[in-house]
Amino acid sequence: MYPQFSSPVFRSQSPILSNSFDQEMTPALISFNQLPQATDRFKFSLLQYLTTVLLKLARHLESRLRSMTPFVFEPNLPEESLPGAIADLSNHNFAKELSQALERDELFLDYQPQIDLETGKLSGVESLVRWHHPRLGRISPADFIPIAEETGLIIPMGYWILRRACQQYQQWQSLGIAPFKLSVNLSLCQLKDPNLVPVIRSILIETEINPDYLELEITESFMVSDISAAIATLTELRELGIQIAIDDFGTGYSSLSSLKNLPIQTLKIDKSFLDDLSATNKNQVILQSIIELGHRLKLQIIAEGIENEGQLKILKTMNCDCGQGYFLSRPLHLEALSHYFRQVKLGIHLPQLLFS
Ligand code: C2E
Ligand code: CA
Ligand code: CA
To answer: Which of 55, 90, 125 is the last residue of a domain?
Structure first.
């Protein structure tokens, strides 16, 4: 079986691998000269992707050689996504396929748990959209959300995401799962949509979820455009009872002083502030300052991108309210989340007894 690469670049005449050892193995030859329109970003992504494929291939070969079983290479890479730059080459097709993805039921939501850092209890989940493309496999939202935004598809897609997340939440409630916060990402384009508030109101009525438990995450980039219109919309959402969080805080243009006038309740500290948190590092000072000042503004602080125990411990000593990250839990499919909820009930959902 040959790897089924579907991007134009991968439609090479020569097979990358044969399916048995006695056949000749012909490496694919891809020259960047054949890709005159490719951007540097595309070339970089392509190299990254091919490196991942080759590493995976090497691991397969090694294990097959050890067991002397016939070699069959399965190129699907469920955890890794295809290079984002595929879109650079065939943006038009990509956008068209994205518009069909909703109708074809190719989008779904994963949910990443958020933990109360004082008690260790589950405080919420963030819904994260995924696209399972029929040929390309899993595509990262970091790659398709920008295209959805450019093409305006984010509006229907955003409503689908909100409705689906709220329906799911309602189902959890009907199963008797203790309430927690449901965080849904909202694109800046959605914030500018005049139908946003009425549609969200109707989703709340339709799914009967308590708006106190719904939080919308929006990046601080809204502050550079028409800020008064944005504040008016956020205020209307707040009047519905919904909570508002500033996502990726610290990477954009806002300052803590500008936050005091916004109808927001939560700050999500960007992952970059958690990198390299050694005692002498300035990141630790910045992190502590954000948490303290955020608290003075009566905001809840959540740190995202917690990847190790050291980061978690520092955040706990700094009185950060909540945490989210691979160390606590990766984003989970629905089935894995049901299992997670059972672990939460038993109090065994955390990697170690960090909160005892
Ligand atoms: P985000 O809103 O900042 O979401 C957090 C991202 O960080 C997610 O990536 C999540 O899987 C990842 N993450 C969580 N914990 C860790 C960690 O410990 N380490 C690292 N390295 N990463 C971690 P994902 O799911 O690929 O989403 C990427 C971005 O795509 C999101 O960033 C958000 O901007 C956008 N996005 C995802 N879902 C939606 C959606 O439903 N609507 C909109 N408008 N945007 C979405
Ligand atoms: Ca987010
Ligand atoms: Ca974020």
So the answer is: 90
